[in-house]
Amino acid sequence: MIGQPQPTGEKLSEEAAAELFRSLLHKEGSWVDWGVGCQTLQKCGYGTMEIFEQTGFQGSHQNMIIVASQVYQSIEKNGGSAELLEYCRGPRSDVLYELRILNNEQRAIAAQVAKDKNLEFDDAKELAKSIQHFLRLPQIPDGFTEHPGDAMAYQAWRAAKQKKDLQGRTRLIAKGLRFAHSQTARQKIEQLLSDLTVTSTKNAPLLPLYRYEDENNVPALLPVAGTLPLSVETFKQITALQLQEPFNVVEVQANITVVPLPCWQSVLTAEDPVVIFHQTDQLPQPIPGKPEPVLVLIDRAKLEWNDNSYFVIADNEMVKLGWFAERPEAEIIGQVVLIMRPKKIFDENNLHEPWQMDD
Question: How would DSSP label each residue in 86-153?
């Protein structure tokens, strides 16, 4: 992996480390030697700050020459010519650093292009990206080859075809001719000198991207134990669900029923929530009006009694919901968090009748 080396536990004697620090301080050898030296010290546990204090190589410079020296070594192992290696050992660490994203074979060829064209680091960066983009194409474009020079030429040719500005188009054509390696690629680019047709490209449509702005709009899925009357055994055996951020993903086992609730604070703070269903006329304090079902959220983790809350207890092996002025003798199996009535529809008949409008 290319990047800052991690300490490997390698041993380096104090004498050897001192000699390496001295050599780096006086910048003996080429930048390749400096990169190898910094890498050796880092692998032996010396930090970038300590190396900087004793050699003058800043942390960012250490990283660059370490990575560039690794690129150099890969070019050397891949059979790079003596002339190419001599070029690389010149002040070219910034150029080789930009070739780090390529594989070993591509680095050697790209380095040769950088040498032949006398590229600076920004051109080398563009060259490396052009090679990667070119090789991702489903097939090699007609007239071009896999050579890095042709990859760079293709990008210039493609951009020139879309350029309306004559001066900008001419500049791109010249750039393509500068890098073109094959004769067919040169011919492709030269055709643009006589063909002034501009090829427009279609832009991809905007992504249908949305973001949750209100947490209440993100439903929380909660397990359902059932409808009262309900056995304590059934109530206790319901497995708690784990919400996985950031989208509240829930893994549901077989034969588990869930119900969505808004992410209200009381819902989110429940440690072991379970839902049961009941009737308004059977609550500890019956609600007047036509009986209707209600959803009761229970937190099974809250078992400490207080006289300001409603609880569910195990009454003769059945779940019983109530308020208790004193601590009940029966086992407390959960505390009521909230009771929710269904959404109210003001006139149900309107749902079944067609709309009528006055003239």
Answer: HHHHTT-HHHHHHGGGS-HHHHHHHHHHHHHHT--HHHHHHHHHHHHHHHHSSSPPTT--SSHHHHHH
Q: Percent of the chain having pLDDT more than 90? A: 45
Domain range list for the chain: 14-194, 217-340
Can you name the residues that pair with 261 across neighbouring β-strands?
220
- Alpha-carbon distance of 47 to 38, in angstroms, equals 10
User: Which residue type, as a one-letter code, is found at position 229?
Assistant: P
Is pLDDT of 260 > 50? Answer: yes
Across the chain, mean pLDDT equals 85
With both helix axes pointing from N to C terminus, report the angle between 148-161 and 121-136 in degrees, rounded to the nearest 10.
Answer: 90
**Dist. CA 63–CA 66, nearest whole Å:** 5
pTM: 0.52
Are 78 and 107 in contact by the 8 Å Cβ rule? The answer is yes
CATH topology of domain 217-340: Umud Fragment, subunit A (2.10.109)
96-151 tens-digit pLDDT: 999 999 988 889 999 999 999 899 999 999 999 999 888 888 888 889 998 988 99
DSSP secondary structure of 306-355: -TTS-EEEEETTEEEEE--SS--SSEEEEEEEEEEPPPP-S-GGGGTS--
How far CA 80 is from CA of 40, 71, 75, in Å, comes to 24, 12, 5
Q: Which SS3 state, helix, strand or coil, does residue 275 take?
A: strand
Select from 8, 38, 11, 40 the least CA-distant residue to 25.
38
Q: Strand, helix or coil at 297? A: strand
Contact between 228 and 278 under an 8 Å Cβ cutoff? The reply is yes
The pair of three-digit structure tokens given for residue 329, joined into one six-digit string: 């003798």
The secondary structure element, H or E, covering residue 250 is none
